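Incident log, structure service

09:12 report received: a user says their structure output differs between two submissions of the same chain.
09:20 pulled the input from the user's history:
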Amino acid sequence: MYLEPFKLKELPFRLSPDPLFLYLSKQHARAKAYMESTIWFTDGFVVITGEIGAGKTTLIESFLKEVQSDVVVAQINQTQVSAIDFLQAVLVQFGFSPFKMKKAELIATINNFLIEQYAAGRKVLLIVDEAQNLSMRVLEEIRLLSGVETTKEKVLRIILAGQPELNEKLDAPELVQLTQRIRLRFHLTTLSQPEMRAYIQHRLEVAGAGDRQIFAEDTFPEIFRYTGGVPRLVNTLCDTAMMSAYTADRDTVTIDDINGAVEELQWVEYASRPHHNLEVLPELGTRATQAHDSTQTIVGRLLVATDGRTVQEIVLQVGRIIVGRTTDNDLQVDSRFVSRHHCQIVTTANSCVIEDLNSTNGIYVKSKRVRRHYLNDGDVVVLGKHELIYVDERLAKTRNTLSETMPGLHALQTGAIEGVETEGLIKQGVEPLAK
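09:34 re-ran on a clean worker, output below:
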């Protein structure tokens, strides 16, 4: 092979998922953070979708490699099975031999196992890859398994990963109960051209190239034209091109090698491929909002302050944002006192909750370390040397509406009118603001 002429230790573009070669683009890092959140929260499913070859399986393998020893994992990859086959497969992952059990016994054994693990202080995680192939009956069995709980919390964490058809299946009317339990959906899109270039360089570096430039600069636009930034296609084309350069006795991949590889593979441009979905799907369900969407209602605002001055302000809409030190977060707080993925803020139409993501230094409200806290207008959350100040926009709108419908209220609240009887207003739930 071409390892010796290119001075590499191992093949850089193998198709088999290898966590060592995982390139964390911003969206892959975000998806991984959402997977990690399932370890600490049991309030619903996490669904990760992506086109064929987008890197879902490699991402799962990388995530599993970092899972702590107190987490018991069942990973299911064969999904074209009956409900009984699926339950048996889960129990096999847990170390049982369930093939002579009837369905009722299978379910009872799983339930007992989950309760026993919880009592022993262990967490149980079920990961289903290629979940788009699951039948409706199997998905319903998974929903029922997710309902196993103690007096305090549910005991099974679940990640479903699959192709985009999984979203269509989950949105079917007969799965409405399961859909309501989905805490987060995230869609992995293809790599951009700069990300694809970084992806290729990363894999070469891991394989032993160091900072050597093996692919000529003019090859990257051509690679993107034929792969569309799909990691698996990038691997196939780059590997074939390196073979072409090797047979031509070159230690650099040129544009001719790319064109030769395309001809050998009999590929057309990515945009011309049949059944290719050009639409970039947004995150669905409860979603992380990176930028303000003018079509959504602003529920609140978050002011980021340090040393007594505000350094950033973001709007909060219905969805979820991740706060942490690294650039893959929705809100980056670049401080050594802040963990890589420090906390998350979940906003609904009626509430806003901040949750610690098992950070090293924690989050504090009123000098008390909290794991989960419902935010009220004016709350200050401390992260290391930074403060997150929550402003509830809904409260402001309520006050403005009352001021318009009840003459004199605004003046009364601000203290502009003295001697006005306030008892009637207080009975209606309106209190004068502090001067």
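09:41 both user submissions now match this output. Likely a transient worker issue. Closing.
09:42 reviewer note: The radius of gyration is 26 Å. Residues 103-119 form the longest helix (17 residues).
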